[in-house]
Design goal:
316 residues
Length: 316
């Protein structure tokens, strides 16, 4: 752990502020254009928030997550109220190859699925105390952060930290993918998605935090394992490059939800926020997003078995 003015924050690393090239031109449209951004120094959790840590929060506060609440019919117009029950999205591998054009082939809404029962009724958390907590919506992550005296990172802060000092590199560790290597660098899908998972270092699903090598800033799981919530609303592309060095954005935030809606989705009226880092379900042929620049928009009410979070504390 690095220190700030002689101080330390347990379980966190100090990230010295600076500027970097945010985004990537080589992969998905929403990562473009590459543009220079500056951020101030901040502390960031060295690992994603774990099941043990989230359980402590729930016991202290009696917090009820979004997935454990009955949805309000007013928020889902046109949906049969009888179908609006507590639950969450669970990955279900297919029995063989399927077209990769429809995620509903491997994702299903499972009544009763939540952070305590990530795969639904009958599942539990045995052996997963040190795994990232999952099945948490953005609201849940923000509530934990507030309780802990922290905040969720902005997208720019998260990406700057994930790069680990390797500005412009494709991955957190450099430019070469780790797939097929003898020593996986992250917990990502190994095999043919979505039916054959050979496991990364023996894991098929989430892995223990810190099971894979850290990046240059000593941060674990900034690629793979679980996607991580940020505080920024999603936009379909980055802003253009500043016209001169004097105009480089400093500590940018996206606080408006105006561009965040996915008009193709059945819940198109629900704003989306940015998730970063990819997960154990990312495969090169379907979702090569275990990269610092990768980003997706996730509806605020969504919780899944592959999204978690970590927190930051900004300098005074």
């Amino acid at each position: 752990m690095e220190t700030q003015q002689g101080g330390e924050r347990r379980g966190m690393a100090w990230i010295e502020g600076g500027s970097f090239r945010m985004g990537c031109e080589a992969f998905y449209a929403e990562e473009r254009p590459v543009h220079e951004v500056a951020v101030d120094g901040f502390w960031i959790d060295s690992k994603p928030v774990t099941v043990r840590e989230f359980r402590h929060f729930v016991r202290e506060t009696e917090y009820v997550t979004v997935a454990e609440r009955k949805p309000d019919p007013k928020d889902y117009p046109g949906v049969d109220p009888g179908l609006l029950v507590p639950g969450s999205l669970v990955f279900q591998p297919t029995s063989g190859p399927v077209p990769l054009t429809d995620y509903r082939a491997w994702w299903a809404f499972v009544p009763g699925a939540c952070w305590r029962r990530p795969e639904g009724p009958g599942s539990d958390l045995r052996g997963r105390d040190n795994h990232p907590v999952v099945q948490v919506a953005n609201e849940d992550a923000a509530a934990y952060a507030e309780w802990a005296g922290k905040e969720l990172p902005s997208e720019a802060e998260w990406e700057f930290a994930a790069r680990g000092g390797l500005d412009g590199a494709v991955f957190t560790w450099g430019d070469e993918d780790h797939n097929g290597g003898a020593q996986p660098r992250a917990n990502t899908w190994q095999g043919r998605f979505p039916w054959e998972n050979l496991g990364a270092a023996g894991y098929r699903g989430t892995s223990k935090v810190g099971a894979f090598p850290p990046n240059g800033y000593g941060l674990y799981d900034m690629a793979g394992n679980v996607w991580e919530w940020t505080s920024d609303f999603f936009t379909p592309r980055h802003p253009e490059e500043a016209p001169s060095p004097c105009c480089v954005p400093s500590n940018p935030r996206v606080t408006s939800d105006a561009e965040s809606f996915d008009l193709r989705a059945p819940d198109s009226h629900i704003p989306r926020k940015v998730i970063k880092g990819g997960s154990h379900l990312c495969a090169p042929e379907y979702c090569l997003r275990y990269r610092p620049a990768a980003r997706q928009g996730e509806a605020l009410d969504s919780s899944t078995g592959h999204i978690g979070f970590r927190c930051v504390v900004r300098a005074d």
